[in-house]
Write a structure and sequence with these properties.
Elements: E1 2-7, E2 12-16, E3 24-25, H1 41-66, E4 70-71, H2 86-113, H3 120-144, H4 167-184, H5 204-220, H6 226-229, H7 231-240, E5 255-257, H8 274-277, E6 280-281, H9 283-291, H10 297-300, E7 301-302, E8 329-330, H11 332-335, E9 342-345, H12 347-359, H13 367-387, H14 397-406, H15 414-424, H16 431-439, H17 465-470, H18 472-486, H19 500-505
Parallel strand pairs: 1-3
Antiparallel strand pairs: 1-2, 4-6, 5-9, 7-8
Helix pairs in contact: 1-2, 1-3, 2-3, 3-4, 3-5, 4-5, 5-7, 5-12, 12-13, 12-15, 13-15
Length: 506
């Protein structure tokens, strides 16, 4: 596979050409003709493969620590204490825009081949490109706040200092793109080469379900701006019209990448050493799982070799101030092999979204409907974890029912839905952090050694140094908006627009 690198001052945007061998990289000017000589399908493999591995990586070393799934040891990895270097922020920024840029390129290529949207196969490529672009662009704005969107990839057209759009404007555009993608998908047709599709193997009906399930996710992101963004009407429309807006209906629809385990399509965690992958389990999540004898516990984590008990490490404290003996660790056998799957979104999330939407009054339904969605979401999550267990140990219906009826039952409180969703969102990208900032749940203990961010769980990441230096005028405008709106600076304590904190200020 040959990789283009699109050079702009926004970021270094990578594109990929497909073949059956290995990856060879070279540089090219984005405004020269070679950029447009590949086919849309030539980008699809790497948009899914590379982007998924990048999200998985940041899930493992950053989000899992912030959200107290894990506690990474050592002096260089102190994310659980909110010590996050500028390099991490820069790599997160570059990753989002690399893959969003590739998806944008894929869409432009497909439209060049079929400018009238007359060919259903090219329309499917356009739709997939829009879905993946929305996934990666949503990550970018959710992590940083206002970011380039309308001009993000205008370096190909000679604009090298893109303006930063507001989150409100960005989300309106994401919704428009997801709407367009939904109309372009044609499940009666496939792709020119279904083997290029590492997510669904050319099954366009599942791509369309992913698109609309992602739509639900991004609509619910605006729960604190519900009236302003008119999300109740659209949530109701999607949930009430599955023919027009099909969404995930089972775990068989999950947006899960099943890595082959053979080079080049491997889960990057397979390159980690045994001890390098197995981050310590955080006390909060271990206590949450052990309290209800959660069937997912031994699949997410494993006991220390010298211990017969489940034990987590206290998050947010200096290593010398905690008991670090016999700590449970991430389960490498399930999560960290060359062929371990990684999910971008799962069926259980759609069910939790519906439960929350009914509870908040965004869509019609009763408390009984909430309870049913809640229970089905837990059941779907447990069955997902059972399905990816290499040992294929059966989890009986009786055990799942016992868990739901005793500890996982819906008690009428929104906090219960969101806490169970937190468990189900283990190892699913940035979503637990997004939900925490959006809702305030779950309620996490903030450690005494988190002074690096003023004892505040990060509300965003700061803009990268390269962005400040290469696009200073537009960077300054974005920071000025933070000051005017929230009396905040470009740091990890400024709220993003859709967050619960920001809604309380505005």
């Amino acid at each position: 596979m040959k990789t283009f690198r699109h050079i702009t001052l926004l970021t270094l945007l990578a594109s990929a050409l497909s073949c059956t061998s290995n990856f060879e990289e070279y540089n090219t000017n984005p405004n020269e003709a070679p950029l447009w000589t590949i086919t849309p399908g030539g980008l699809l493999q790497e948009i899914v493969y590379g982007g998924t591995n990048d999200i998985a990586s940041r899930t493992w070393y950053l989000v899992s620590d912030l959200m107290q799934y894990t506690v990474t040891g050592g002096t260089n990895n102190q994310y659980h204490r909110y010590i996050i270097g500028t390099g991490i922020m820069g790599s997160a920024w570059n990753s989002c825009f690399v893959w969003a840029g590739n998806a944008d390129h894929m869409f432009r290529l497909a439209r060049r081949y079929d400018p009238e949207d007359a060919d259903p196969v090219y329309n499917n490529y356009k739709a997939i490109a829009l879905t993946m672009k929305c996934l990666y662009m949503a990550n970018a704005t959710d992590i940083f706040g206002d970011v380039p969107c309308s001009q993000a990839f205008a370096g190909r057209d000679g604009e090298y200092r893109p303006a930063f759009d507001t989150q409100e404007k960005i989300y309106h555009q994401l919704y428009l793109d997801l709407e367009l993608a939904n109309t372009l998908y044609d499940p009666s047709k496939g792709l020119t080469r279904n083997g290029q599709d590492l997510l669904y193997g050319g099954d366009i009906s599942k791509w369309r379900k992913f698109n609309n399930s992602l739509y639900l996710r991004l609509l619910m992101r605006m729960s604190n701006r519900a009236e302003q963004m008119a999300i109740a009407e659209k949530l109701t429309e999607i949930f009430s019209d599955p023919a027009k807006y099909p969404v995930f209906e089972s775990n068989g629809d999950n947006a899960t990448v099943f890595f082959s385990g053979s080079i080049p399509f491997i889960n990057k965690f397979g390159n980690q050493t045994e001890n390098g992958f197995r981050h310590n389990a955080a006390e909060y999540t271990i206590n949450l799982l052990t309290a209800g004898n959660d069937p997912r516990l031994p699949l997410m984590y494993e006991k220390c070799n010298s211990s017969s008990d489940w034990k987590g490490q206290v998050s947010g404290e200096s290593l010398q101030d905690v008991d670090g003996t016999n700590i449970s660790r991430l389960n490498r056998k399930v999560l960290g092999q060359y062929d371990s799957p990684f999910s971008l979104m799962k069926y259980d999330e759609v069910l939790f979204i519906r439960a929350e939407a009914i509870k908040r009054g965004f869509v019609p339904g009763t408390e009984e409907d909430v309870a049913a969605c809640h229970a089905d979401a837990i059941r779907a999550s447990i069955r997902y974890w059972e399905s990816i267990d290499p040992d294929r140990k059966e989890i009986t219906d009786a055990r799942i029912d016992a868990y739901i009826n005793s500890y996982g039952y819906y008690d009428g409180e929104l906090s219960k839905i969101l806490t169970q969703k937190f468990i189900a969102q283990f190892f699913v990208g940035y979503e637990p952090w997004n939900d925490y900032r959006r809702t305030g749940f779950p309620v996490l203990r903030i450690g005494s050694a988190t002074a690096a961010n003023a004892y505040t769980l990060p509300t965003r990441l700061s803009y990268p140094t390269a962005t400040r230096t290469t696009n200073p005028e537009n960077y300054a405008k974005a920071v000025e908006r933070l000051r005017e709106r929230y009396n905040a600076e470009d740091n990890m304590r400024a709220p993003v627009w859709w967050s619960l904190e920001a809604s309380r200020i505005d």
